[in-house]
Amino acid sequence: MKGLGPELAGFAAVGICAYAADLGLFVWLRGPVGWDPITAKSLSFLAGCTVAYVGNALGTYRQASAEVSRLRQCGVFFAVNVAGALVQLLCLAVSHYGLGFTSQRADTVSGAGVGMVLATVLRFWGTRTLVFRMCQERRARSVRQGRLGTWTG
């Protein structure tokens, strides 16, 4: 766990940018463009995932060796992000339908609060272990040297 700070900071910075892209595009597509919410959210989700992948590939994990093609890496990244979105939906469904907490506040806490935290943990784990994995020796050397490939470290 030592030396995870720069990696977490880079991951968080990229995540904030991806969230801003997702939210901004969703609001624009729903508002001025007038698209339906499902289409708008689908496209904004894809845009946010793209921003996150590019940010992590070129920033946070730029020194991770590509053991697989970038196309496969991108596909696994999108799968990890879809899994994160499903975690958020599951938290919301359990709270709303399973436990009977049906207020707007309860939905926000379960979906955007608890669900977001659990989804972020899943996304961090999946991104570092499934998408941008480096051999353990190289990762340990990078951590010892205080650089894991992020622009924050």
Tags for this entry?
single chain, mainly alpha, 76% helix, 0% strand
**Overall body shape:** globular
- What is the number of helices? 5
Alpha carbon gap, first and last residue: 15 Å
Radius of gyration: 17 Å
- Tally of DSSP β-strands: 0
Task: Give the biggest beta sheet.
Answer: none
The proportion of strand residues reads: under 5%
Indicate the low-confidence ranges by residue numbers. Answer: none
What percentage of residues falls in helices of 4 or more residues?
over 70%
Structural class by sheet pairing and helices: mainly alpha
Quick check: average pLDDT? 87
Secondary-structure element order, N to C: HHHHH
Provide an overview of this structure.
76% of the residues lie in helices and 0% in strands. With 153 residues, it is mainly alpha-helical. The protein is globular, with a radius of gyration of 17 Å.
In short:
This protein has 153 residues and is an all-alpha fold. Helix content is 76%, strand content 0%.
